[in-house]
């Protein structure tokens, strides 16, 4: 089990089923790492386009997924509010499937553009609904551990392209990836449950009770207290909007914290590393083959993701996030230092050829221990149901815009600043994230939904000098 406090229940089954969508999403994000070397080849047996793509086309293929992700949160969040979280999540699989099928048979760069755009729309929807769904089906004591399972499935999604992509053709690689959203759709259709919060909000009390009994493996008496708490909380809430957030000092502070955290998560540079992993390893001049090195890094990401669930509800969100930022900053600094020695000095890097791989493995470890999942977990916990749709949309959009900026202009940064300067810029962002976490991020470990809302409302009574 992920934690001693997580008992085998249908809640875990539902969480694992929905997490297959997380794998589909991060497959889309890391897709570029093994594909870029193929698309930069002039060998028509390797490159379906028949020519090497330009540097500008490279940038658009990498970043269009984030353009699509900017637009994905709104339609899927509207579907989830109108028809339920389950329908909203199932609908996200459709653009994923179309995207992979399009790129499997693409012979034009514009079809790759289309596939990346569609995949991005699905990614944006997934980032919006997945943390919300898991938070709404989980009991308070295990919410952090269940939320952190997202990191495992996201890491598995990052691992798959690096594990099989370098050794498969573009067509068969994309056809293989199509299986993941298909598997999610089938599994979640049959095993996934609607959230009790949505059902109570839709005045389907009997269905909510049945779902709670199924999720908790308890009888009517066993879920009575939790069901009454959900009813009480929802009665206090009415449909909300952005104006409601900015009128309430506590919600405004929670909103600003969530947006800044999400922007810093992306500006720390992890997605740039994921997108250009093989390219970075090739340019490092390491003696280790780039495809094998990227496989090691991807496997490390997947392996390290298992470390978070047991400690999320023990050490707390804040400790994990601060430690994660510090580790990422050190890793980025070492990468920048290696490239500075290689590109700007007469010193040989042969004695330290292992440093890029070691730095990347430690970067992955640090990222998985906090930055990968904690901002999503916190943003899903801080807000009442009446504003969750608008806040989840804003948080996901912020993440996507930040990722777009980093991935679209990563090549421009390396051209103007050099690889060393680029990684040192990421080091600065990690340092800012560390300071922000220590000063402003609240601890939600072990707190119930009601306790977190009381904490947020308490912020409204604080003096303006304590505002974020």
Automatic annotation (TrEMBL):
Keywords, ordered alphabetically:
Cell membrane, Glycoprotein, Membrane, Signal, Transmembrane, Transmembrane helix, Transport
The record lists the membrane-crossing segments as: 60-80, 87-106, 112-133, 145-164, 170-191, 254-277, 292-312, 319-341, 353-378, 390-410, 416-441
Q: Indicate where this protein is primarily found.
A: membrane
For this protein, the record's Pfam families field holds: Sugar_tr (PF00083)
Localization annotation: Cell membrane
Q: Which GO terms describe its molecular function?
A: transmembrane transporter activity
Q: Name one GO cellular component term.
A: plasma membrane
Q: Does the keyword Zinc-finger apply?
A: no
Leader sequence residues? 1-17
> Can the keyword Acyltransferase be found in this entry's annotation?
no
Domain Major facilitator superfamily (MFS) profile positions:
12-445
Q: Which SUPFAM superfamilies match?
A: MFS general substrate transporter
Q: How does it sit in the membrane?
A: Multi-pass membrane protein
In terms of PROSITE patterns, this protein maps to: MFS, SUGAR_TRANSPORT_2
| Protein family membership | Belongs to the major facilitator superfamily. Sugar transporter (TC 2.A.1.1) family. Trehalose transporter subfamily.
What protein am I looking at? Major facilitator superfamily (MFS) profile domain-containing protein
Native organism is Callosobruchus maculatus
């Amino acid at each position: 089990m992920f934690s001693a406090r997580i008992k085998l229940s249908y809640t875990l089954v539902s969480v694992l089923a929905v997490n297959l969508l997380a794998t589909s999403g991060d497959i889309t994000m890391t897709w570029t790492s093994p594909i870029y070397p193929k698309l930069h080849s002039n060998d028509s047996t390797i490159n379906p386009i028949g020519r090497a793509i330009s540097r500008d086309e490279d940038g658009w293929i990498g970043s269009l997924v984030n353009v699509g992700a900017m637009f994905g949160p709104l339609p899927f969040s509207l579907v989830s509010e109108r028809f339920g979280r389950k329908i909203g999540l199932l609908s996200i699989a459709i653009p994923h499937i179309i995207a992979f099928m399009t790129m499997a048979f693409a012979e034009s760069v514009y079809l790759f553009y289309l596939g990346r755009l569609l995949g991005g729309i699905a990614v944006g929807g997934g980032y919006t609904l997945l943390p919300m769904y898991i938070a709404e089906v989980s009991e308070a004591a295990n919410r952090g551990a269940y939320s952190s399972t997202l990191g495992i499935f996201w890491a598995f999604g990052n691992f798959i392209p690096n594990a099989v992509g370098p050794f498969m053709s573009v067509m068969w690689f994309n056809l293989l990836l199509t299986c993941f959203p298909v598997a999610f759709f089938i599994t979640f259709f049959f095993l996934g449950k609607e959230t009790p919060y949505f059902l109570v909000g839709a005045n389907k009390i009997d269905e909510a009770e049945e779902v709670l009994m199924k999720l908790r493996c308890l009888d009517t008496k066993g879920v009575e207290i939790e069901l009454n708490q959900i009813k009480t909380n929802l009665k206090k809430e009415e449909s909300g909007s952005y104006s409601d957030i900015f009128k309430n000092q506590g919600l405004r502070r929670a909103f600003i914290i969530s947006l800044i955290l999400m922007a810093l998560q992306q500006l720390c540079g992890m997605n740039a590393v994921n997108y250009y992993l093989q390219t970075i390893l090739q340019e490092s001049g390491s003696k280790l083959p780039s495809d094998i090195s990227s496989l090691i890094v991807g496997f490390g990401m997947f392996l390290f993701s298992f470390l978070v669930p047991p400690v999320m509800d023990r050490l707390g969100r804040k400790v994990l996030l601060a430690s994660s930022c510090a580790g990422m900053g050190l890793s980025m600094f070492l990468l920048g230092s290696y490239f500075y020695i290689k590109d700007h000095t007469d010193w040989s890097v042969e004695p330290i050829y292992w440093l890029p791989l070691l730095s990347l493995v430690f970067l992955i470890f640090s990222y998985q221990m906090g930055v990968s999942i904690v901002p999503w977990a916190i943003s899903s916990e801080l807000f009442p149901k009446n504003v969750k749709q608008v806040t989840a949309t804003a948080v996901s959009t912020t993440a996507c815009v930040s990722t777009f900026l980093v991935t679209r202009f990563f090549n421009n940064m390396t051209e103007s600043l050099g690889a060393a300067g680029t990684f040192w810029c990421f080091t600065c962002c990690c340092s800012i994230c560390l300071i922000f976490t220590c000063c402003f991020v609240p601890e939600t470990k072990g707190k119930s939904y009601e306790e977190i809302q009381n904490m947020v409302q308490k912020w409204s009574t604080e003096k303006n000098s304590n505002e974020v």
